[in-house]
User: Which sequence fits this backbone?
């Protein structure tokens, strides 16, 4: 089974990826760990692409968490058995990111590179509330749904995310 999890910051992508990985014994790749070097420095795109490509080549099954359109995105979408779009309301994402920052304050969580301490600065708050939800982004997500309707799942809240997980258990459990 191959699962691609995309969606908005703070929607629970990494939590869902970890849950699926643990339940089904699948290797997981958090694209934030690929994109970021310690101290929130961006890794060279070619290196990031190589890491994702090597991960996908090395595993027949996987869970990949993250958007990053320049990191083997088309391959991830086409090879995935399921694409989960975490389309939670911006205020819910904001609250979750705030809560996450309080939990991991001064530390890096598992789904981010060591040396990238959790932050909730103005730039990130604006990203959650405004900048990541442009008309172009919405159009992109809709295009994935149109391109892969048979394997595209949209979760707008925790209940729908739970239904997706239960569907995986029925299909692959």
Assistant:
């Amino acid at each position: 089974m191959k699962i691609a999890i995309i969606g908005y910051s703070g929607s629970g992508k990494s939590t869902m990826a970890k849950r699926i990985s643990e339940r089904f014994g699948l290797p997981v790749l958090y694209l934030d760990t690929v994109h970021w070097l310690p101290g929130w420095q961006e890794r060279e795109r070619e290196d990031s692409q190589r890491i994702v490509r090597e991960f996908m080549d090395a595993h027949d099954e996987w869970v990949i968490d993250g958007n990053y359109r320049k990191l083997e995105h088309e391959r991830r979408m086409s090879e995935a058995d399921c694409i989960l779009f975490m389309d939670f309301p911006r205020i819910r994402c904001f609250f979750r990111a705030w809560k996450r920052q309080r939990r991991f304050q001064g530390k890096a969580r598992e789904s981010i590179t060591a040396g990238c301490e959790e932050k909730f600065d103005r730039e990130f708050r604006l990203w959650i509330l405004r900048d990541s939800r442009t008309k172009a982004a919405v159009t992109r997500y809709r295009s994935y749904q149109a391109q892969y309707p048979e394997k595209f799942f949209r979760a707008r809240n925790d209940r729908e995310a739970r239904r997706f997980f239960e569907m995986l258990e029925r299909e692959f459990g």
About this structure: The first helix runs from residue 13 to 24. The chain has one domain: 2-164. The chain has eight helices and seven strands.
